[in-house]
Amino acid sequence: MKIVVTGGSGRVGRHVVSCLARDHEVLNADLAPPSNAEDGVNWVRADVMQLDDLRQAFQSADVVIHLAALDYDWGCPDEAYINVNTRGSWHVLQAAEEAGVRRVVLCSSISICGLQEMRPDWKPQTLPIDETHDNRPDYAYGVSKQIAELMGQSFVRRGSMEVVMIRPLAVILPETLEQYVQFVDAPDRRWLFYYITAEDLARAFKAAAEVPGINGESFYIGADDSSHPEPTLAWAERILGSLPETIDRAYFERNPRASVFSNAKARRLLGWAPTSDFNELRRKLG
């Protein structure tokens, strides 16, 4: 297939482009060229805020993977997240539909649910958390991703193009592993200790582009395990104050350190599975 990746020069984008290029013709559509050009991958300058850039980039594409956005970690002004992430996603969907693209894969986020904000008034309603869980984001970044998914669903209803939404958990890159470990190991860290490696995430995007018959679906993409050393239900009860009434006890019996976010849907429909083990990642640091 011909696959266009918006934001292919970014931190995650370069892993996605490299993974796709093994089997497909890939075009990297980004504001900046990649720092390390992948063999056989062309680059075109494209701004997701400019429809004409996207119309040109998407010509003859079979699939578009939309990664270009303002990242949560950048701490951008609220209005910037809404403007770029929301309008940019609409532009991608509109230009792809006009170009006759068969499928768009949107990069959503774990932030869509709002649970990573750790608000006292919004805690997990079930464990593990899956795609049926309510989404109640407060921070503008999460809201921008929620709106993008809603827009994706509107294009699904039009019936001319498939849309798939990928929700990565906290992405660990080789160069950010040490920083991530320092973050989760900080004393009294109040968080949900989820992660996904960039390599495993890239394979999920590849599956989302390739697997036939998937349309209008959202997928949490995360590791099987938590990045916390204790059993998940133990630290979750301490951090949350109490556990939700609905808990899949068998899930946590099979893996006491299981992630609070389930990847079962991605396993079932995309045929994807993570390969990482956080204890092994820790050992890499020496």
UniProtKB/TrEMBL annotation:
Residues 3-175 form the NAD-dependent epimerase/dehydratase domain. This is NAD-dependent epimerase/dehydratase family protein. It comes from Chelativorans composti. Pfam families: Epimerase.
